[in-house]
């Protein structure tokens, strides 16, 4: 059981989601890596579902744990971040299928996550807010939201990010285009398309949506292509997988600190960090420096 004492910053609770791709490995590896670096691990908890992760995080916050380590995918991160800005609790995260949020923090392995916790810096990073709900990394509209919803968890566990490519085969053949109207202060983008991506940070999957974006710039980066044929849809999807989206024609790619409104006709599926989030319309903004995280000492993107 966790006690009510106020713990030292070099003490941590580790919460692992077993259903994430590397969950079992994290449960066995992360505590030993932390102990080897001088961090006292008060408890390691293995849970299976996101609601159990959330319950464990809320309990740790209530008991004034000073550092929470959450091991799970982007969806797991997004499920717990709503509690952390209010609590002001520093945390570290790694790892699942996409790992976009961890990559944006400069964490790409169990070792770098342990280094960040033991030797790194506490920083404040941005969060996205969609219809009042916090999320860690990105929001998708249309095709990628459908692909995320239809990718089996077992397939992600077996083959990792390639699972999304396999699951995309049927949606790429059946998805219908839609009209989108995106508005923000004195600006407007309209298109007939198959997808919209909005990222709070640099990464969409393992690729940079915009090389200049960071998790501390206070901006949302948005991608939409005004092309709607089946061939254009496949071309766009493959370009995003390869990180070549800026070479496509008829692309709008921009970053803004202003609140956005995304409306579509007809209404289409929305996903945040790979998790179903209903349908459009969406009101979107950035909560600047809302989350305290531990990052590696060599990350050069500094916050004020």
CATH architecture of the largest domain: Sandwich
Please outline the major beta sheet: 6 strands, antiparallel
Number of strands: 18
Instruction: Give the SSE string.
Output: EHEHEHHEHHEEEHHHHEEEEEEHEEEEE
Unreliable segments of 5+ consecutive residues: 1-8
CATH topology descriptor of the largest domain: Tumour Suppressor Smad4
How large a portion of the residues is in β-strands, by DSSP E?
25-35%
At the first level of CATH, the class of the largest domain is: Mainly Beta
**Spatial order of the strands forming the largest sheet:** 6-5-18-15-8-9
| Shape descriptor | globular
Number of separate domains: 2
Distance N to C terminus: 38 Å
Task: For the structure shown, list the relevant keywords.
disordered N terminus; six-stranded antiparallel sheet; 11 helices; alpha+beta; 304 residues; globular; Tumour Suppressor Smad4; Rossmann fold
Please render the helix and strand layout as text:
Blueprint: E1 11-17, H1 23-36, E2 40-47, H2 50-62, E3 68-71, H3 74-80, H4 84-87, E4 91-93, H5 100-104, H6 110-119, E5 121-130, E6 133-135, E7 138-142, H7 143-150, H8 153-159, H9 162-167, H10 169-174, E8 178-184, E9 187-193, E10 195-199, E11 203-204, E12 207-208, E13 220-225, H11 230-242, E14 251-256, E15 260-265, E16 269-272, E17 275-279, E18 282-295
Parallel strand pairs: 1-2, 1-3, 3-4
Antiparallel strand pairs: 5-6, 5-18, 7-10, 7-16, 8-9, 8-15, 10-13, 11-12, 13-14, 15-18, 16-17
